[in-house]
Amino acid sequence: MNNPQQLTFPWSAKPKLIFRDFYTNKENLNLVNNLKDQEAGDIIIQASSNIGKSHLLQSVCNFYNEIGKTSFYLPIKKALDYDPSVLDSINKIDLICIDDIDFIAKNDEWERAIFNLINQCQQSTSRIIFSVSGSIDTAGFNLPDLLSRLNKLLKYNVANLDDRDIEAAIDLIIEHNSINIGDKEINYILNHAKRDIAHLKHILFKLDEYSLSTKKKITIPLIKEII
């Protein structure tokens, strides 16, 4: 949130996660444009794990903050340790992003709280965006009214990246984060690490952190230790 003096939560969007660092292929361009469009309405992002849905939710929060709007990022996996009352009054915020909504499935208190939150947002000017692993219909919610409400929202599926997209995404991450790594080392990572963009990003950031702290170059022997 960009108004922490008014409401304080134990979660917030990471400020470094922005749309510029999310590689957008043609299949995902419409989704990204609609996330930025304040008039596009409430949205559900459906995607497999580790494909960037958390990045997108935090990016749209940071986008709203940049244009002077309030936002709230809620990672449900962490929020489940708290009482659903943490959602009280957040419908006054311009944008609410709730990550991994499927994790509340079969938790009756949280399902009811999210159902009530959707109703409150629809009666106010708040916009709400969810992400789900897989699809809403297979999440396994107990509350039929919640599933009905969610199915009325605009749904987008995040398209998987093919090999060429992954290579382009890696180049984008390296460029935007000024990571000093050679082509030979990049090719080694791509050929030996799991071709999962979240995993590859983690490797690159870990290598960069090590390189900066030790003032040593990123080498293949170091990469072997990391991956």
What structural category do the secondary elements indicate?
alpha/beta
- Beta-strand content bin: 5-15%
Which class of the largest domain in CATH terms? Alpha Beta
Mean pLDDT: 90
Count of domains: 2
Descriptive labels:
227 residues, Helicase, Ruva Protein, domain 3, initiation factor, DNA replication initiation factor, Rossmann fold, 44% helix, 5-stranded parallel sheet, 5 strands, 9 helices, alpha/beta, disordered N terminus
Layout of helices and strands, plus pairs?
Blueprint (H helix, E strand, L loop, with lengths): L25 H11 L6 E5 L5 H14 L4 E5 H4 L15 E5 L8 H15 L4 E7 L10 H8 L2 E4 L5 H14 L6 H10 L4 H18 L5 H7 L1
Parallel strand pairs: 1-4, 1-5, 2-3, 3-4
Helix pairs in contact: 4-5, 6-8
Give your account of this protein's structure.
The chain has 227 residues and is an alpha/beta fold. The protein contains nine helices and five strands. It has a five-stranded parallel sheet, sandwiched between helices. Helix 3 (76-79) links the parallel strand 2 and strand 3 (95-99). The radius of gyration is 19 Å and the shape is elongated. Mean pLDDT is 90; it is low at 1-7. One of its GO terms (molecular function) is translation initiation factor activity. Keywords: Initiation factor, Protein biosynthesis.
